[in-house]
Amino acid sequence: MPARQILAPPPVIDFDAVRAELQIPAAYPPEAVARARAAGARPLPDLPDATDIPLVTLDPPGSRDLDQAVHLVRRGTGWRVHYAIADVLWFVGTDRDDPLVAETWRRAVTLYAPDGNTPLHPVELSEGAASLLPDVDRPAVLWTIDLDDRGEVTAIDVHRARVRSRAQLDYPTMQAAADAGRLPAPIADLPVVGELRARLARERHAITLDLPDSEIVRGPDGHWTLTLRAQLPIERHNAEISLLTGVCAARIMLDGGIGLLRTLPSPTEAQVTALRKATAALGIPWPDDEPPGDVIGRLDGSKPRDAAFLEDAVRLLRGAAYTPFDGAPPERTGHGGVGSSYAHVTAPLRRLADRYATEVCLALQAGRPVPEAVRAALPDLPAAMAAGDRTASALDKACAAAVAVFLLHGREGETFPATVLQIDAERDRAVVVLHEPPVRAHCSPTGLTEGSVVTVRLLSADPTTHRFRVEPVRPADQPAGG
Question: What residues does the RNB domain cover (predicted)?
């Protein structure tokens, strides 16, 4: 599920304590680290040489766990997309009694917090030997996907290869280059291809949530606050390549009769109705005949009102699951957010499932049996991934709560304007979003109506529990001039 990233946290927020409360390990087991070092020191395997392809990586500034490298080239009236994915399984293997493999099964995902990450793999691999760092040869899984002039897939190939990234690029720099018409040749057509794929997604009524990142800064009044940063266009275009590859992977697995899909039910009428109420509360227009994905697609996550709605829209993507199958296809094969069948195969440094789904695709594409260890792992992956995703979600919520308390601590007794997003009758509470700082809170629903702007008073903000409380200010209690 999409999550908002919090950037540049002040050092006074103790995220180590947050991780400790959630029993997230502070270090990697030594025996697993030793295995990772040994794996990273192995000579590269004898693989087809694809180092002539001028691949580049494109990530947030400072990234070191580089899963993907991309290259696009014109081919007739369409394009050929090369997408190299770190070959993590070659380093790690499949023996679940091995200490490194066992630890990755326990972790399942990389966990991200404002001050750093808790990696799925030891950094010796995730930021070293397995990462697609520039100017070094790496084993990779190389996807080659041909597109026509509309961005539709016309051919797919995937095999292992030796690759070499030419450059490590970052989003802000490349967005500036795109704006100036000076993108490097390997990604010069990324905006065009990305927009074509996004247009096809809209035709499928896909739901793409570009949740904004937030940065903790000093406001003009001297108080800490959050500024919101919407995804850059180049980020969205790059994400389309990953989605494209996931759609192709699902196609290979469904055609081959075995695999691991990422599935999600389409939004229910009740979910859409609830979301419509949120747009009404926030004053966002939503015509009766407009699908949810179209409404979401025209919002600007850097605007607090739109960001509040995007956070509400996450409910449409709840219920995503990993669905293994071996033989007949599963009852549900589609992903309501993507608007198509879909699989996770592009982030093996950060997600356990990807390396197994990738291995299925490699075997099917080569016309050979899926390795027995991979086949046997497929039914166990959903539970492992669900546990990892629960931990990631809990960490996201706990970090957001810690940040909210940091922003509000010391301002107890002050009043804040807020918009009422939802009246939750079952839980006897209202959900409000403060205008400044833009954080969510729960309070008594008595006398409140959805969509109204009210004043709330901060009762408490406890840094030790990461909890804060607000209450609506009744008219008789309004401060002078409020």
Answer: 47-367
Average pLDDT over residues 455-461: 96
For the ranges 104-108, 146-150, 166-170, 311-315, the lowest mean pLDDT is seen at 311-315
* CATH number of the domain located at residue range(s) 412-477 in this protein: 2.40.50.140
Chain mean pLDDT for the chain: 92
Where in the chain is CATH 2.40.50.140? 412-477
Q: Are the C-beta atoms of 17 and 332 separated by less than 8 Å?
A: no
Model confidence at 421, in pLDDT bands (50, 70, 90)?
confident
